[in-house]
Design a protein that fits this description.
The structure is a single chain. The protein is of the alpha+beta class. It folds into two domains: 2-152, Glutaredoxin (3-Layer(aba) Sandwich), CATH 3.40.30; 172-215, 2-Layer Sandwich (Antioxidant, Horf6, Chain A, domain 2), CATH 3.30.1020.10. Helix content is 30%, strand content 21%. It contains seven helices and eleven strands. The chain has helices at residues 31-35, 51-62, 64-68, 82-96, 111-115, 155-171, 193-201; strands at residues 2-4, 19-22, 29-30, 39-44, 72-78, 104-106, 130-135, 141-147, 185-186, 206-209, 212-215. Strands 6-5-4-7-8 form a five-stranded mixed β-sheet. It has a three-stranded antiparallel β-sheet with strand order 1-2-3. A hairpin with a 6-residue loop joins β2 and β3 (29-30).
Length: 225
């Protein structure tokens, strides 16, 4: 196992995602090479052959095409062995009818978990909590979510988060509360008096105040990169 990057804490938004080389169900994997210029959704689960994790991994697999449409690769991580991962994949196919096509990292030495702050001693000193990292093509951490061991993740919200990030990047805007694709976006707040005047001149904005304006996006947006 080879790793690079800081250890001892949770990587923060805007930092470079730590690189690592580890065994996985797809063979040895070096994260920076495997990413191959795409977005990555990396998530950890507490243990193989556990009920909540089984529902999560199969749901991510079933939604694989939805993530792929947004140029997103999926990557799972836990402290189980490759042999355990492989056996679990076969079991999930039999009992839930889902084929896990994305790699699962075997982090038995907990180095990847350490790099990404996936071990929370208050929950468990030997199992990863349910962490989610959204990493952009430049290997920058754009978002992270942590769930307790007894609460499953919401795949719809995670996909919505990725869509919001990509929309904001492509259109130099922000997204308001509960935003969904097709909703109006938030115009960046003005920083000068000239920008205030410019905002007030737009008749196509939904103007709530000089600092809070919304607008519709063109129907066709640039593809995610």
């Amino acid at each position: 196992m080879e790793t690079s990057g800081s250890t001892g804490g949770i990587p923060r938004i805007g930092e470079t995602a730590p690189d690592f080389t580890a065994n996985s169900t797809h063979g040895e994997l070096t994260f920076s090479k495997w990413q191959d210029g795409k977005w990555v959704l990396m998530f950890s689960h507490p243990a193989d052959f556990t009920p909540v994790c089984s529902t999560e991994l199969t749901e991510f697999a079933k939604r694989g095409n939805d993530f792929a449409k947004h140029n997103v690769k999926l990557l799972g991580v836990s402290v189980d062995s490759v042999h355990s991962h492989l056996a679990w994949i076969q079991n999930l196919k039999q009992i839930l009818g889902a084929q896990i096509t994305y790699p699962l990292v075997a982090d038995i030495d907990m180095k990847v978990s350490g790099l990404y702050g996936m071990i929370h001693p208050g929950a468990s000193s030997t199992a990863t909590v349910r962490s989610v990292f959204v990493i952009d093509p430049k290997r920058t951490i754009r978002a992270l979510i942590y769930y307790p061991m007894n609460v499953g993740r919401n795949s719809d919200e995670i996909l919505r988060l990725i869509e919001a990030l990509q929309t904001a990047d492509a259109n130099a805007c922000a997204t308001p509360v509960n935003w969904k694709p097709g909703d109006k976006v938030v115009v960046p707040p003005p920083k000068t008096e000239a920008e205030v005047a410019e905002r007030l001149s737009h008749t196509d904005y939904e103007r709530l105040d000089f600092y809070l304006n919304k607008k519709d996006l063109p129907k066709l947006q640039p593809a995610a990169k």
